[in-house]
Design brief:
disordered N terminus, mainly alpha, 516 residues, disordered C terminus
């Protein structure tokens, strides 16, 4: 089979694995805008419906780090076939789910079967292309990983409004079937993956399930439940912390670990994983912050807010192939530094927004940010994996993708909490300046009251509305201050990470003749 594998055009392999991967990454965000419709159909509250998201993310996070071990145990092609088939079948089951309980159960199955697709596809692509062409492969792979989460809300909103929320899941069926057929025909296991069965690390599996599952739940539900004011969040935080520390010690010392942590001895890989974690932190948190800002401050409808995120995907779509070609010609660390500087700079640019900002003030920073993400994602993946042996590639890619997802979850949780707390602080500070003894306040209230009276309200109603309008203006000002503060913070954080790129090893020569 290995001889067949070598003769398959690598771009056919790339298309085969990216069908399933794009579908799986899309599903992390495509359901977001459908939650109100799901809740209404299932006679549930929005809070209950959010379990449709949480259950998927928890199951996905548990499977991700196990992918390397699963591929070595069952075979990469077999695992890929099982994952795509399971994901497609569970998508169909989600689409026909009769109640919320069954939908959550099928989403757990969907997350568990889809969790292996990202690291598997990355490992297959890295091995299918020659080292000097891996930048092109990662540019193609990055299209799915970066663009899919941005397109998710747009696609989900359009399907939900045009047809039904059930089509958010049914749309996976043709893509899944195409992926199954192409995987069956064009993907083969390399010979080094075939090995005798070893003792199974049951303790590692158990601690992984408990630790990662508890951590993901805490990150998803922490802000909603007011963090440690909630007993369940406090208990699960302790469980996650203790279990993951014990897991790290166990996996480092056991003979047959389910997660091989020794790969972190390679400094380029360890640095790359740290940078990818921070990239996930900034990327996913900004993807959540910007639509919230557009809806709460600028009164964008949900669908329009989702469409307003498209320029970032456009920038990445155009730049990914270009960066993929450049990685074989220039030092990728220079591209990586430029990418970090551009993404950080555009976050600082968004940090200059005010209440008078129009569509184009939001459009252009996002386009440029999309190009920066392409210049960050492709070189970072390439340089991180350059020194990893093929036998360890599956394990390395699974940890790489896990840390990106955890970084994203931490980013969403942290920035969401900081937004609420900072808005409260700024609101209190601004409120101290608004008193009935202040001439400016009296003038504004009089103008508002006169406007409402002119609109037909009586004096008492106009006074109440004037106070309410004043409070709304205060909230709006506190909100915009908090959003731009967070954008500046994220931008500064990204730029501060640039010196870490110097720790990474200089990439090897690109000429094919020098590659064994």
């Amino acid at each position: 089979m290995s001889s067949e594998h070598r003769h398959v055009n690598p771009w056919i392999v790339a298309i085969a694995v990216m069908f399933g991967t794009f579908m799986e990454v899309l599903d992390t965000t495509v359901v977001n805008v459908s939650l109100p419709h799901i809740a209404a159909t299932m006679s549930a509250t929005i809070d209950e419906a959010t379990w449709v998201l949480t259950s998927y993310l928890v199951a996905n996070a548990i499977i991700l780090p196990m992918t390397g071990w699963l591929a070595a145990t069952f075979g990469r092609k077999r695992l890929l076939m099982m994952s795509v088939t399971g994901f497609t079948l569970s998508s169909f089951l989600c689409g026909i789910a009769p109640n919320l309980g069954s939908l959550i159960a099928f989403r757990i199955l969907q997350g568990a079967t889809g969790g292996a697709l990202q690291p598997l596809s990355q490992a297959v692509l890295l091995e299918s292309f020659e080292p000097h062409e891996r930048g092109k492969a990662m540019g193609f792979w990055g299209l799915g990983i970066v663009v899919a989460p941005i397109l998710g809300p747009v696609v989900g909103g359009w399907l939900t409004e045009t047809y039904s929320w059930r089509w958010v899941f049914f749309i996976n069926l043709p893509v899944g079937i195409a992926s199954i057929v192409m995987t069956r025909l064009f993907i083969f296991d390399p010979p080094y993956l075939r090995r005798l069965s070893e003792r199974i690390d049951y303790w590692g599996i158990g601690m992984l399930v408990v630790g990662i599952g508890a951590l993901q739940y805490v990150l998803d539900k922490g802000q909603e439940d007011d963090w440690f004011a909630s007993t369940s969040i406090l208990i699960l935080s302790i469980v996650a912390g203790v279990t993951l520390v014990v897991l790290l010690v166990h996996e480092w010392t056991t003979e047959h670990p389910i997660i091989d942590l020794r790969v972190f001895k390679e400094r380029s890989y360890a640095t790359g994983v740290l940078l990818m974690t921070m990239l996930g932190f900034v990327l996913y948190s900004s993807m959540v912050l910007l639509p919230i800002m557009l809806q709460t401050i600028f009164a964008y409808p949900a669908m329009q807010a989702g469409i307003s995120m498209a320029p970032r995907g456009m920038g990445s779509l155009v730049m990914m192939p270009i960066v993929g070609n450049l990685t074989g010609r220039v030092d990728v660390r220079k591209l990586l530094a430029c990418g970090f500087a551009i993404v950080g700079g555009t976050m600082l640019w968004l940090g200059q927004l005010n209440l008078n900002a129009g569509y184009w003030e939001i459009f252009w920073p996002q386009v440029l940010q999309g190009t920066g993400l392409a210049m960050t994602f492709v070189p970072l993946t390439t340089v991180t994996m350059q020194s990893i042996a093929p036998q360890r590639m599956g394990n390395a890619t699974s940890l790489f993708n896990l840390m990106r997802n955890i970084g994203g979850s931490v980013g969403i949780a942290v920035t969401g909490t900081m937004l609420v707390r900072h808005r409260q602080t700024v609101g209190a500070q601004l409120g101290e300046q608004i008193t009935l003894y202040d001439a400016g306040t009296q003038s504004m209230l009089a103008q508002l009251k006169a406007g409402f009276v002119a609109g037909g309200a009586d004096a008492a109603t106009a006074t109440q509305r004037a106070y309410a309008a004043m409070h709304g203006m205060l909230y709006q000002q506190a909100s915009i201050v908090s959003f731009v503060w967070l954008f500046r913070l994220l931008g500064g954080l990204f730029i501060a990470l640039i010196p870490l790129i110097l720790i990474m090893r200089r990439p090897k020569g690109r000429a094919p003749a020098k590659i064994d």
